[in-house]
Design goal:
There is one protein chain. The chain is an alpha+beta fold. It folds into 2 domains: 232 residues, Jelly Rolls (Sandwich), CATH 2.60.120; 36 residues, no CATH class. The chain is 28% helix and 16% strand. It is built from 9 helices and 9 strands. The strands form 2 sheets. A 6-stranded antiparallel β-sheet has the order 1-7-4-9-3-2. Helix 1 crosses helix 5. The chain is globular, with a radius of gyration of 21 Å. It starts with a helix and ends with a helix.
Amino acid sequence: MTGGQDISRWAECLLRDGYCIIPDLLPSSVLCELDSDLEGQFEQTPFGDGDFYGYRTKRLGRLLRRSRAAEKLVLEPGILALAREILGPACERIQLNVAQAIEIHPGEIEQFPHCDQDMWAGVKGQHEYLLNVMWPITGFTQQNGATRIYPGTHKQQIQSLGELADPVIAQCGPGSAICFLGSTVHGAGANRSQAVRRGVVVGYSLGWLKPYENLWLAYPPEIARSFSPELAELTGYVQHRPNLGNFEGQCPSLVLRSDVPAFPRATDALRPDQEAAVSEFANGQRLGV
């Protein structure tokens, strides 16, 4: 994906259909490296416990700590631009919502069709909450449980599963990006093959939401100090104006410094419109107006 025209084209697809599949966005070697890094970790991970997470499915969070290759997925420039295009109207900045590897084993049943935005109780339909990107590590096929996406459901009020039309089976290989909105109904397919299906979901949400993955536990300061500024911001070490997510009245990036003050100075972090209104009021008070 290169240039504003491509981003606008994929954004148009997302807003029209609720999903898009961008082919060959990353070299397959990146996913191969990630697969190699996660191999032993998947072996040690137990199966899930619950009908939603799946009893024949394994999940690994904290992905940026498990493989350096994960950073290439999270910071893919075209995807970030697409996320900002979709989510920007409702927030000042986006954040990482999740970076999770998923391994679906043979015998797993189809996942319950769902919308990821339902994790938040806010009013729906006025703006998007989330953009998810599923990156196949192994090739996704109908037999091994490729993600099932229900086009157009981002514009519908689905009251029962019986209202769903046939899904699109997101069949594609490593390096392609399966993008879908938080308002789009989707779910993993059943794995009827004889091999595991591996993929990574990277989600970006509005910067003022509580994220699915607890970012500060996943990436505490001693870990985040090794991140680039852009990655540190995506993982929560930044304020969302006005003053949201502050640490002692300052940007939480303060804790990534080597000289964290014992008594930080609380400092305004307001939107320009708020700063102007507050300044005008304060100046009036000082002048006795």
